[in-house]
Amino acid sequence: MSPSPVIALFPEASFGAALNCVGIARALQARGAEPVFLCHPGFTGVFAEYGFREYHLQTGPETGQGRWQDFVNTHLPHFDLSPEAQLETYVAPTWEAIVDTVIAVEDSLEALIAQIRPEAILLDNVIMFPAILRSGRPWVRVVSCAETEIPDPCVPPYLSGLSPADSAGRARWERLCAPLLRPAHNRYNAFRKARGLKPLPAGQFLENSDCLNLLLAPSAVRYKREAPLPEERFVFLEGCVREEGRFEPPVLPRNAGPLVYLSFGSLGAVDTAQIKRMLEVFDTMPARFFVNVGGYLDAYRRVPDNVFLGSWFPQPSVVARADLFIHHGGNNSFCEALFHGVPSLVMPYCWDGHDNARRTADTGVGTHLHRSDWTPDELRQTILDLLEDDAMRARLAAISARMQAEPGVERAAAAVLERLDADRH
Questions:
Q1: Number of folded domains in the chain?
Q2: DSSP tally for the chain: helices H, then strands E
Q3: Please, are residues 161 and 169 in contact by the beta-carbon 8 Å criterion?
Q4: Higher per-residue pLDDT: 144 or 278
Q5: Sheet of 344-346, strand order
Q6: Where is the signal peptide (predicted)?
Q7: Strand, helix or coil for residue 403
Q8: Burial of 288 (C-beta count, 10 Å sphere; 0-12/13-18/19+)
Q9: In 10 A of CB 101, how many CB atoms?
Q10: Which of 324, 312, 142, 313 is nearest to 240 (CA)?
């Protein structure tokens, strides 16, 4: 392998995957590699801010960032529904939109890979882009969504929010899911065929890599599988938490009590009405609240004096100082809470948030509430109970120590470079 192998990282168009890949890229860079990013429209500058070179995919207006924002706004009411109900209202339309994106960027992606000529490609996504396989370059699958993304009879169905023992729920989910996803899956397989690739089995949009697969699921919340994944190709990480600049909490007019951090990610920040409801509850509590509202800061006129709103936070550094993390169940947020030994209150919106909400409760590292179906007293009491649960905090301290002893970003980078070196020889 060359002294500075170029490794292209291609995360999906979400900040969770993007920033997860930033952590891996930093560790690769520290080991002498040259990480570069393949960048979806709307994420221009995100990776350059961390000092990495970006290559920008070209796409039409029908699949750009504005279209995705409109898509989320349209589906906001559906986030109140159960995972089962979301299959028809949100999950199936989302797969259609994802397939649209794959088709739209194919030519641009193929041209960029030919231009960059990377030693390897790290794909952190839920779907395969044919240009990656067609390039002939070694590629690594990064599973930064829930572990349920890779199926197994003992693992609940992806996106279902079910527990492993719920066999009746599993049967019902599988019966409902197959026909709803079939149109998007058939269209995707037709595109694969047109690009000279084999079709994937029903319901699957991404194959495992023959080279290396990285899964972010920490051991504390990992499922026991009926068919264990081969260790030579599947590396489980203890999360994948990046370092950020030190966070000094600003002094608030009412500055007493534990620190609670709230972030529903870029998707949940759209839901300003829900966050305003929560601020009213926070106003009644003996705690400090730091709330990530994304690009919607101007939507908030009245802010309690024990609350600080921000359009962006160095999240891992904030979580490290927090006593409770309220989030949407995104896998990065879930892992960051575990890494720093902080209880989670998961209020899921969609996708694998439901899986992580269930896993949070099943493993005793927090609890979950419905996104909007709660009373002020219920939210207040849930927060207080989590802040006062010393037994949970002790369990989380042990989990944190285990995760920090083997940082996921370091193990990921080492596994990638070792596999490339072994394949070369």
A1: 2
A2: 14, 13
A3: no
A4: 278
A5: 307-310, 288-292, 259-263, 324-327, 344-346, 366-368
A6: none
A7: helix
A8: buried
A9: 23
A10: 142
DSSP secondary structure code for residue 213 in this structure: E
- Domain that includes residue 304, residue range: 259-404
- CATH number of the domain at 168, please: 3.40.50.2000
What is the tens place of the pLDDT at every residue in 63-118? 445 565 677 778 888 999 999 999 999 999 999 999 999 999 999 999 999 999 99
Count of all residues that appear for the chain in the document? 425
Tell whether 415 and 396 lie within a shared domain.
Answer: no
- Please provide the DSSP assignment of 159-190 as one string: T----TT-HHHHHHHHHHHHHHHHHHHHHHHH
**What's the predicted TM-score (pTM) here?**
0.93
371-423 tens-digit pLDDT: 999 999 999 999 999 999 999 999 999 999 999 999 999 999 999 999 998 87
| Residue 115 and residue 70 in contact, taking contact as beta carbons nearer than 8 Å | no
Of 316, 262, 254, 264, nearest in space to 287 by CA = 254
Q: Are residues 386 and 417 in the same domain?
A: no
Look up tokens 């349920």; give the residue: 148
Cβ atoms < 10 Å from Cβ of 277: 14
Q: In angstroms, rounded to a whole number, what is the distance separating the alpha carbons of residues 136 and 126?
A: 20
Same domain, 22 and 120: yes
